[in-house]
Amino acid sequence: MADFRQRGASRSDILDLMRPSTTLAFRVTPIPPVALDAVRRSGVDASGHPVEYLVAEGGEPLRCCLRDARAGEASILFGYAPPLPAASPYREVGAVFAHAGPCDGPASDGYPADWRGRPQVLRSYDRRGRIHWTTRVHDGGDPESVIADMLGDPEVVQVHSRNVAWGCYMFAVTRAD
Fold first, then answer.
1. 2 domain residue, yes or no
2. Predicted confidence band at 18 (pLDDT cuts at 50, 70, 90)?
3. φ and ψ of 64, to 5 deg
4. Can you tell me the mean pLDDT for 2-18?
5. Looking at the 3D structure of the chain, how many domains does it have?
6. What is the DSSP letter of 119?
7. Which of 12, 92, 106, 152 has the least CB density, counted as fewest CB within 10 Å?
8. Does residue 157 sit within a domain?
9. What is the pTM assigned to this prediction?
């Protein structure tokens, strides 16, 4: 091993080199197309209420393609209950926006570009569908590191991103297989 003192390396530089550096791969997923198709076809949401059809003003967070709506896009607003890892009292129903018809989905399975930098609640769940203690409010900066840290806990099987102000479900995150 090289003598770092000769190169002027600090103690923290040496410790950083000794720390294992692993990047946990994960996948960001929108509302599944089959769930969206069912809502679009039936016109009824998770609570049995009618779906609202609207023309986007622009900026509405679309859960089908994980981007903000552009003004004039045909959209729907409906109650959605995101699936949990198991039946649980923590199941919630909340309002979400999506395109009124099928779309191409997200541009990637990474963190949505339009939502980078926005504060979010990152709520983690264990295999029983219970909220895990790694849940946190995130400022929106470097979401990949925060999510990887949360999923680095072996008890966490899923993370939901939620809007801080409105509490709405945004997307799910799981480990990449």
1. no
2. very low
3. -85, -35
4. 43
5. 1
6. -
7. 12
8. yes
9. 0.84
